[in-house]
From TrEMBL:
The gene is TYDC1_3. The keyword Cell wall biogenesis/degradation does not apply. Signal peptide: none annotated. Gene3D superfamilies: Aspartate Aminotransferase, domain 1. Keywords: Decarboxylase, Lyase. It comes from Vitis vinifera (Grape). This is Tyrosine/DOPA decarboxylase 1.
Length: 90
């Protein structure tokens, strides 16, 4: 029998512009949750607002991560456009 694996994915968006990060992440979280396709929560760690997504059960499949990841990217682009912002490139 394979060991069970549980996962909590935490992420944030790094912006080129300062000062709008929390607003952006809050709007992104709301947009994702309002879609009804995934549900995420938030936390503040070390003063940084992060979005949390629990992807873990014994029946978790690749699609349980891939589909929400595409949704996050889509909603992030929409929110960025609404606020006239751009992501920081690594």
């Amino acid at each position: 029998m394979a060991p069970r694996r549980f996962a909590l994915v935490c992420f944030r968006l790094k912006l080129k512009q300062e000062g709008k990060g929390r607003e952006l992440k809050s709007r992104l979280l709301m947009a994702v949750n309002e879609s009804g396709l995934a549900f995420m929560t938030h936390a503040v760690v070390g003063g940084i607002y992060i979005i949390r997504y629990a992807v873990g059960s014994t029946l978790t499949e690749t699609r349980h991560w891939d589909n929400p990841w595409e949704l996050i990217q889509e909603k992030a682009q929409l929110v960025l456009q609404e606020l006239g912002l751009a992501l920081e490139e690594d």
